[in-house]
Amino acid sequence: MNPRNYETIPLPPFAFADVVNRKAKQFSDHRLRGPLFTVHDLGDKVQSELWGLNSDGDRIQFLGYLVNHVVEKIEEHEKTCHEAHCRVRLDGEVFLYFLYGKLEENGLKIAGDLFTSTEIVENDQTIREIGFKLDELKNGDHIIYDDIQMLHEIMIALKTDIAELKNLYVLGKKKWYQQVYGIVFENLANKGMDELMKELAPLLSRLGHEIVIKYLQG
């Protein structure tokens, strides 16, 4: 029996970003159920998770997911809370301050044009709706395309790119919108995506403001 050749290292058959997202989701589901978030209870646990990630980029992605998750949980709580002196937002903001500090430690300069919590929740809702719409289109007969398998692959990639926007609010509005524009322009350049982009135009326009609206309607 010939020995195996381990002189070459194969490329990973998965995306590192997917692994980081899964880890962030698992941590959020287990540790960040809310509604109270305190640095005293959670700071060391967050740091422990960060040590297990390979790069600053992975840590920024992980922290971005946590920031988004905490903002959503605080907003959800405040919709039903009637306590006069509720500590959820105050403690939550201190915890978010801690998370933003960790982002800066890992090389991300926090922009001054950050989204408000309300804007984040609204964008997240739109992103979810885009995901649902893509699933609907992928499973239906709305789009006519010669290579249906290729179209499905493009739609899966588009859904992943759009979902990733939820982790990028820490970039600030200017850079975040640049990410949206990049996704839209890349797909508009694909001739086979014309009909699909028309179907998504109303939702994408809610994310991309004036510039995206102009290109989608052009």
Topology:
Elements: H1 16-31, H2 39-51, H3 56-80, H4 88-105, H5 117-139, H6 148-164, H7 173-188, H8 194-217
Helix pairs in contact: 1-3, 3-4, 3-5, 5-6, 5-8, 7-8
Description:
With 218 residues, the protein is an all-alpha fold. It folds into two domains: 16-105, no CATH class; 117-217. The protein has eight helices and no strands. α3 runs antiparallel to α4 and α3 crosses α5 (117-139). The protein is globular and about 55 Å long. The mean pLDDT is 83.
> What is the first-to-last residue Cα distance?
64 Å
User: What Rg do the Cα atoms give?
Assistant: 20 Å
- Could you say how many structural domains there are in total? 2
Morphology? globular
What is the helix tally?
Answer: 8
In helices, the fraction of residues equals 55-70%
Q: How much β-strand is present in the residues?
A: under 5%
Helix/strand/pairing category: mainly alpha
Number of strands: 0
Q: Which stretches of 5+ consecutive residues score pLDDT under 50?
A: none
Mean pLDDT: 83
The largest sheet is: none
Q: Give, in order, the helices and strands.
A: HHHHHHHH
